[in-house]
Amino acid sequence: MIYDASLDDLLQKVWDGKRIDSAEAKRLYALPLEELGALADHRRQLAKAKAYNGRGNEIVSFNIDRNVNYTNVCNVYCKFCAFYRTEKDDDSYVITLPEIDQKIEETIALGGSQMLMQGGHHPKLTKQWYLDLLAHVKNKFPNFNIHGFSPSEFIHFRDVFNEPLEKIIGDFKAAGLGSIPGGGGEILVDSVRKRVAPLKAMSDDWLEVMDVAHRLGLYSSATMMFGHVETVDDRIAHLDRLRVQQDFSLARKRENPLLGNFTAFIAWTFQAEHTKLRAPTVGAHEYLRTQALGRIYLDNFENIQSSWVTQGLEIGQVALKYGANDLGSIMIEENVVSQAGTTFQMTVPDMHRLIKDLGYEPHQRDNWYRLVN
C-alpha cells in the first residue's frame, strides 16, 4: 500500500475539530468503519464537552414523547411511504380532540412532556382546524410541548391556505406550536426527491420553512432518510445544505438569542416493505457509516440522535459510539415506520440499560436538550 500523507493530514484535521469540505467527506466515507467511528466518537466528545455543566461526555440523553399522526389522508403519494391513504380508503382517518386528549394523558402518565405531531397532506383540512387543535392542546395541557408539522406539511399549508410561510408559522406558534420536526427531509437533492416523492416539497422549500421558523424563534430538528436511490455524493450534499442553514441560523442567533436553530440531526434508513419504491435497502454497516460522517461534517450541530426505531435496540446502542449522544425517544406510539414493516419496542428501563452498559449516565431531556431529571 502506498503511503498517503494527505490522508494523515485529513485525519489530524478531523481530530482537531476543524471543518471539512465535501471532497474530504468522500474520502472519510471510504475509511474502515471502525476508524470512521472512532473519529466520529471523538468529534462527539468535542461537541458535548461543555454541555450540562461540563458533564456532556458522561451523559447520554433520551426523551419520552408520543408520535401522533393526526391524519393518514395524503395527496402526495410518496413511493417510500406505506402509511398514506386516500379519502376514499376505508381505513383513512382524521383524529378527534378526545382522541388527542387521551393520547396526551397517557403520555404524561408515562413521564412524557411532548408529542411529535405530523400527518398526511390532507387536501380539505382548513387552517382554522389546525389552529383550533393547537389551541385546544395548549389550553388543556399548558406545559406539554407540541413538536409538530414537518416542512413539507407547511409547504402544503402555504399552497392550500394561500398565505406566506411567515404568516402561517407565526399563527401556528401563537396558537401553541412549540417546535418543528425535521420530517420530510429525505435527501435534500431535487433530482432524488423528484424520483421518490415528486409531489412533495423540494429542497429549497424544506430549507425555507426551517429558515422562517428559526427567524420566528422556533427550534427544529434535521433529518435524513437514506438508503434508496441516492448516492453517497447526494448524502454529502444533504449534509452540506443542513450545515449552511445552521450557519445562517446561528449567526442570527448571536445577534438575537431569542431566535431558533437546529437542535439535532437524526438519520435513518429507508424501510422498504409495503412501499412502492423499488430500491435495495442498506443495513446497519451503512447506517453507522452515514451517521458517523454526519457527526463529523455537521460541526455546528451539538446533538446527533441514534435511530433505534429503524435499526433496533442493539444497533441503536452501538450508534452511541459512532457519533450519537442521544438515544431518541421511547416512542410510545409510532405508525409510519411500522407500516413499512419495521417494529421495535423500547421502554425507559431499556434506555437506562443500553446507556449504562456503555458506561454513560442516562438522563431524560426535553425537546431543547435540557435535562428534566
Please describe the structure with a list of short key phrases separated by commas or semicolons.
alpha/beta; TIM Barrel; 16 helices; globular
Describe the structure.
46% of the residues lie in helices and 13% in strands. It is an alpha/beta fold. The protein has a four-stranded parallel beta sheet with strand order 5-6-7-8. The longest helix is centred in the middle third of the chain and has 24 residues, at 232-255. The radius of gyration is 20 Å and the shape is globular.
CATH homologous superfamily assignment: Aldolase class I
Average of pLDDT = 88
| The CATH C-level class name | Alpha Beta
Order of helices and strands: HHHHEEHEHEHHEHHEHEHEHHEHHE
Task: Determine the structural class based on helices, strands and strand pairing.
Answer: alpha/beta
Classify the helix fraction into a percent range: 40-55%
Secondary-structure map with pairings?
Elements (H helix, E strand, L loop, with lengths): L4 H11 L6 H8 L3 H16 L2 H4 L4 E5 L1 E5 L27 H13 L4 E5 L8 H14 L4 E4 L2 H11 L3 H11 L3 E2 L9 H7 L6 H13 L3 E8 L5 H24 L6 E8 L14 H14 L5 E3 L2 H4 L1 H6 L7 E4 L6 H4 L8 H10 L3 E4 L9
Parallel strand pairs: 1-9, 1-10, 2-3, 3-4, 5-6, 6-7, 7-8
Helix pairs in contact: 2-11, 3-12, 6-8, 7-10, 10-11
Quick structural overview:
This protein has 373 residues and is an alpha/beta fold. The protein has helices at residues 5-15, 22-29, 33-48, 51-54, 97-109, 127-140, 151-161, 165-175, 190-196, 203-215, 232-255, 284-297, 308-311, 313-318, 336-339, 348-357; strands spanning 59-63, 65-69, 114-118, 145-148, 179-180, 219-226, 262-269, 303-305, 326-329, 361-364. The radius of gyration is 20 Å and the shape is globular.
